[in-house]
Amino acid sequence: MPPLFRPVLVPVPERYAVHKLIVATRRHQDGIGLEKIHKDRQQAYAIFEAMFDANEHATVAEAYLEAIKRGATWNEAIVKSLMAYCQDAIS
Fold first, then answer.
1. CA-CA distance, 8 to 49, in Å (whole number)?
2. Single pTM value for the model
3. What angle is formed at CA 83 by the lines to CA 79 and CA 89, rounded to 5 degrees?
4. How far apart are CA 52 and CA 58, in angstroms?
5. What is the mean pLDDT of each run of 10 residues along the chain (91 residues)?
6. Distances (CA, A) of 54 to 20, 61, 62, 74
7. Cα angle at 22 between 19 and 23, to 5 degrees?
8. Residue ranges per domain, the chain?
9. E-strand spans in 8-84?
10. Which residue, among 18, 11, 12, has the nearest Cα to 61 in the 3D structure?
């Protein structure tokens, strides 16, 4: 009989949010892809907002700094998603 509980690896929220920003830039720019892009970014922003509300600014900053050390491609993807958020907030 299988055990009732199985160990599961769950990413820490700040890294998951950064991951969502990156993934959003790699989606297809069609109907369903656009919906997923929006969902990815909204999830990332919701996590960041919750972490900022919990005074976890440094934790978020560490995850961001770690991600941009991975190279220009990751940095460009993160910046692209953050700029999209800024444009949405303005309009």
1. 25
2. 0.84
3. 150
4. 9
5. 78 96 94 92 96 97 95 95 81 67
6. 20, 14, 15, 26
7. 85
8. 13-90
9. none
10. 18
